[in-house]
Design brief:
With 433 residues, this protein is α/β, with parallel strands linked by helices. It has two domains: 118 residues, Urease, subunit C, domain 1, CATH 2.30.40.10; 293 residues, TIM Barrel (Alpha-Beta Barrel). It has twelve helices and 21 strands. The strands form four sheets. Strands 1, 2, 3, 4, 5, 19, 20 and 21 form an eight-stranded mixed sheet that branches. It has an eight-stranded parallel sheet with strand order 6-9-10-11-12-13-14-15. It starts with a helix and ends with a strand. Its cofactor is a divalent metal cation. InterPro entries: Amidohydro-rel (IPR006680), GlcNAc_6-P_deAcase (IPR003764), Metal-dep_hydrolase_composite (IPR011059), Metal_Hydrolase (IPR032466).
């Protein structure tokens, strides 16, 4: 782990440091607005993109690039590495993972140091921003972990807040969550979580909770969705056994996300439609999908991706074993075995999160499943950002995320054009690889 310790220290220092101007030329840009070759981008010392463009036969593109460089203090003729020649590599926005639990043997529930390690494990694979998913635990532990995320957000732009996957889940669809900690979301518990997050709904102050998964069929499920939504949280329908009408009611009450479609929920049935059609037909809902070929096999990934164009967000649901060898791991207090990269609970064989990165999800989509590069990148960038309004100026990130365009954050991935491996990565103008 010596090398990884050094990587963690370097990534953590970069993300706590100051942004620097970035200038990249000669790239093949791929984002939700399309593909373009000969592309260039320039960002400033705030970590914000100030200009973009493409090479033109008459030389005007080069002139515009040089002018943009000078406005941010970069000498376009410098040979000291200030200007990066992409040499045809793929340029995408940084990936945004809104549902992941950890990496590199650490979970986001493991305190400040655990967050640093797990975030580095995802950052070096192109995930420049992340919502930190916290698992089901006793309420005091959940609230402690919420407060830890809140404190980390103050020093790092890459942490978008937390996602609470539990404890308000259906026992029948609990997956790898501790059944002894599951609860009905009575108003007092919701207030306790919001207080830990720093939210003050009466004053219009957002806390650090971005998302919470709730089974809407629980006695207080719909009421809790309304309560969280009123506080600026985006509730998600998932880990549920809800019928179609109840899922609809959840979305009408304010739920804006479906937690990992197909997993931990009643599936598609021609006489019992369940929650999936309710999410698919509602244009307000962003639908998570784990594209690892294991949680959801390839034919269903293709089917699911086509059900709701521009609303499918690739997520990893990654646990501590991500980017690690097979072996024994923990998910909270539960024992997990990872065999062939697949995590299952020792107790009952239930799938216990994934070992996926968004880098691999995008690679699979393009190179194995034949998705268009634009659609695959959109699912890992603009769509998850839009789920929380981060595709426009907002009080959490300030600068919008998800596109390579003037006014957007300088979250940039330079990828190998053959296998789509992330080679160079910037988050808000801070180079992490």
């Amino acid at each position: 782990m010596t090398d990884r310790s050094e990587i963690v220290a370097r990534v953590t220092a970069a993300l706590k440091g100051e942004a620097k101007p970035v200038a990249i030329r000669g790239a093949r840009k791929v984002d939700a607005r399309g593909e373009q070759s000969g592309y260039w981008v320039v960002s400033d010392a705030r970590g914000v993109i100030v200009a973009t463009g493409a090479a033109a036969a008459d030389g005007t593109g080069e002139e515009a690039f040089e002018h943009a460089c000078r406005t941010v203090g970069i000498d376009p003729a410098s040979r000291s590495g200030e200007v990066i020649d992409a040499a045809g590599r793929i340029l995408t926005p940084g990936y945004v993972d809104i549902h992941a639990h950890g990496a590199w043997e650490k979970s986001f529930d493991d305190g400040p140091d655990g967050i640093d390690v797990a975030r580095a494990g995802h950052a070096v694979h192109g995930t420049t921003r992340q919502v930190l998913s916290l698992i089901t635990n006793p309420m005091d532990v959940i609230c402690r972990n919420i407060r830890t995320v809140r404190e980390k957000m103050a020093t790092r732009p890459d942490i978008l807040g937390c996602h609470l996957e539990g404890p308000f889940l259906a026992l029948k669809r609990k997956g790898a969550h501790d059944p002894n900690c599951l609860k009905d979301p009575v108003p007092e518990l919701v207030d306790e979580m919001l207080d830990a997050s720093g939210a003050d709904p009466a004053a219009g102050k957002l806390g650090c909770i971005r998302q919470i998964t709730i089974a809407p069929e629980l006695e207080h499920g719909i009421g809790a969705i309304k309560q969280f939504a009123a506080a600026g949280v985006v509730p998600a329908v998932g880990h549920c056994d809800a019928d179609y009408a109840t899922a609809q009611a959840g979305f009408d009450a304010g739920a804006g996300i479906m937690t990992h479609m197909f997993n931990a929920m009643n599936g598609l049935h021609h006489r019992e439609p369940g929650p999936i059609p309710a999410a698919v037909e509602d244009p307000r809902v962003t639908i998570e999908l784990i594209n690892d070929g294991f949680h959801v096999q390839n034919p269903m990934v293709k089917l699911g991706f086509g059900l709701a164009p521009h609303r499918i967000a690739f997520v990893t649901d990654a646990m501590a074993a991500t980017d690690c060898p097979d072996g024994a791991y923990k998910l909270g207090e539960l024992d997990v075995n990872v065999i062939d990269g697949h995590a299952r609970l020792v107790s009952n064989g239930a799938i216990a999160g994934s070992t996926l990165t968004l880098e691999v999800a995008v690679q699979r989509a393009v190179n194995e499943l034949g998705f268009s590069p634009v659609a695959a990148v959109e699912a890992a960038t603009l769509t998850p950002a839009r789920a929380f309004g981060f595709d426009r100026p907002n009080p959490v990130t300030g600068t919008p995320l998800g596109l390579i365009a003037p006014g957007y954050a300088a979250d940039l991935n330079l990828l190998d054009p053959t296998d789509w491996t992330a080679q160079h990565i910037w988050c808000a103008g801070r180079q992490v690889k």
